[in-house]
Amino acid sequence: MSNNKTVLITGAASGIGFNIAKVFYNAGYQVVMTDKDPELLYQSAKKVGVDVISLILDVTSKKQWTSTIDEIVKQTGKLNCLINNAGIGSPNDIEKICEKHWDMTLDINLKGVMWGCHFGLKEIKQHGGSIINISSIMGKKPMSNIPAYAASKAGVISLTKTMALWAAENNYPVRCNTILPGFTRTAMMDQALKDSDDPESLLSGFKKLSPINDLVSTQSIAEMALFLDSDKAQHITGAEFVVDGGYCI
Ligand SMILES: NC(=O)c1ccc[n+]([C@@H]2O[C@H](COP(=O)([O-])OP(=O)(O)OC[C@H]3O[C@@H](n4cnc5c(N)ncnc54)[C@H](O)[C@@H]3O)[C@@H](O)[C@H]2O)c1
Hints:
The protein is an alpha/beta fold. It has 2 domains: 6-181 and 216-243, Rossmann fold; 186-215, no CATH class. It is 48% helix and 14% strand. It is built from 8 helices and 7 strands; from the N terminus they run E-H-E-H-E-H-E-H-E-H-E-H-H-H-E. The chain has a 7-stranded parallel sheet with strand order 3-2-1-4-5-6-7, with helices on both faces. Helix 5 (147-169) links the parallel strand 5 (129-134) and strand 6. Helix 4 (99-127) packs parallel to helix 5. The N and C termini lie far apart (39 Å).
């Protein structure tokens, strides 16, 4: 049954974003799945539901943000919830790091979220709703070999707080929160395993990093996002939620 709300999810073609799309669809949202990868996006959208809207959106492009939100308003009349999920991450220590790696990581993971907040707010403030930014435990408790990724995700936590304050100070009916997922089995982790000489011990190492000795499910993250957009979370804004099996303790 429809709940009369439209949600836009970035990076929704795979992993965490894909599962968020499924959970919001099942909760009755008009789901708009976006991604920069057209083929994967259309395949994934079909798996979620026939009435899902899928639109190409590279989160680094201001032009595409404008056209995407215009198209959503044209098709559904409004936007109530934005989930800034698209992100990339690969290791590169501070001694070997190159400018291209730094710029690309910060552009997608931080600037992409900033444009999402900027363009999303214009529409969401008219009807009320929330913005949920997907950060990472690496933004709070980083490892040594991912300086660009960790810095981008720490930036997302900070951006969430300024965004929440701005909305509250201006009496906009918009809340903004961030989720910090722990180690989750998606294409991002599969790439790290593929690049490793010993994927099995890397995988068990990822599990052991959390006190519960397990990976986080994409479902747990999606359920947290659904809660944060619900009325049950009406007094929650500017907050960070770790979903990490205890890694950040
Ligand atoms: N997997 C983990 O362990 C983990 C942990 C903490 C945080 N996260 C965060 O969760 C989010 C989702 O990651 P995931 O694990 O599902 O990875 P994933 O690789 O499965 O999915 C990421 C999606 O983002 C898309 N994308 C990449 N660049 C884009 C761009 N410029 N514009 C639009 N879309 C783009 C990709 O095409 C892909 O569909 C990311 O922000 C990631 O940093 C993941």
